[in-house]
Amino acid sequence: MALPLVLHVLLVAAAAAVARAPVAQAWGVEGHYMVCKIAESYLTSEASAAVKGLLPESAGGDLAAVCSWPDTERRQNPWSTPLHFADNPGDCKFSYARDCHGTKGEKDMCVVGGINNYTAALMDSSSPYNRTESLMFLAHFVGDVHQPMHCGRTADLGGNTVLVTWYTNRTNLHKVWDDKVIGTAMNRLYRDDLSTMIGAIKRNLTVAEKNEWEACPSPTTSCADKFAEESAELACPAYVGAEQFSNLEDEYFFKALPVVQIRIAQAGVRLAAILNRIFSGNNNSRLQTI
Ligand SMILES: *[C@@H]1O[C@H](CO)[C@@H](O)[C@H](O)[C@H]1NC(C)=O
Ligand SMILES: *[C@@H]1O[C@H](CO)[C@@H](O)[C@H](O)[C@H]1NC(C)=O
Ligand SMILES: *[C@@H]1O[C@H](CO)[C@@H](O)[C@H](O)[C@H]1NC(C)=O
Ligand SMILES: *[C@@H]1O[C@H](CO)[C@@H](O)[C@H](O)[C@H]1NC(C)=O
Ligand SMILES: *[C@@H]1O[C@H](CO)[C@@H](O)[C@H](O)[C@H]1NC(C)=O
């Protein structure tokens, strides 16, 4: 599309100004809900009871009901904003030492640091951190780290400044991955019913995949590093065909959908594995590191 350069620059600047503020939600509400619903179904009875015991009353006993709480919290208290992502210089890689910091270089302030922080807090009964909030943060960040655009390029704020149309609607590439693909899938394939989509994702899961995803192969890096490395690698092909001002339609949708579905499944399985390890001493060596 041949927009005058000035307009282009203005649009990008406008998008940059609002990005990472309320717009960047990190999987939309539906994505986080699905991740947490899938996780709940794989909890041991001990972990399930412990989780229920920590949930705020508003959750009605359902972890999935509060899995978007950190996005609300962030709007009120921006300190936690950097904990939702871990962008990179554009090399499709995640390196903790290089990429896990806040905008002013604050160490550990990225989504991987957040997962490690709240996992450690929940494992340590003497931690001063609020356990209800630690649980809600952990559940949310394990979702976020699986969304490829949460490990996208720093230069475009993880796709937030890449302005595109999704069929007829103007949006940006980050939001396409947070909720547009999910919304279109719901509408076209799952009768606008979230539980139908969750069921389809779960039925697709094999035992071998589940075992592989729970595994944490290296005793020296945390599992969360691996999740971010995978997302950074998936973000690269996600930028292809999605240049500034592209019109994204069926071709992009059918390329992105399987990735979105598998990342939601992986996030759910891994969140359950982490919570089982925390709350039921499920001491399977595969889950040992985190
Ligand atoms: C760890 O959690 C505490 C309590 O919420 C927070 O103040 C701190 O910034 C967190 N750090 C990271 C890296 O998540
Ligand atoms: C812990 O956090 C929850 C959710 O924000 C809040 O409702 C509760 O009052 C907090 N508990 C304490 C002891 O501060
Ligand atoms: C475009 O936006 C409208 C209004 O929010 C919404 O109803 C519709 O589903 C969207 N279409 C697509 C393809 O996302
Ligand atoms: C099922 O798995 C296939 C192969 O990985 C994938 O293409 C498809 O999108 C998956 N469907 C769902 C609903 O997860
Ligand atoms: C895990 O297993 C080891 C050895 O079997 C044991 O020492 C440790 O206490 C266990 N941890 C938990 C959380 O149950």
TrEMBL record:
Q: Which domain of life is it from?
A: Eukaryota
Which species does the entry assign this protein to? Avena sativa
Its protein name is Uncharacterized protein
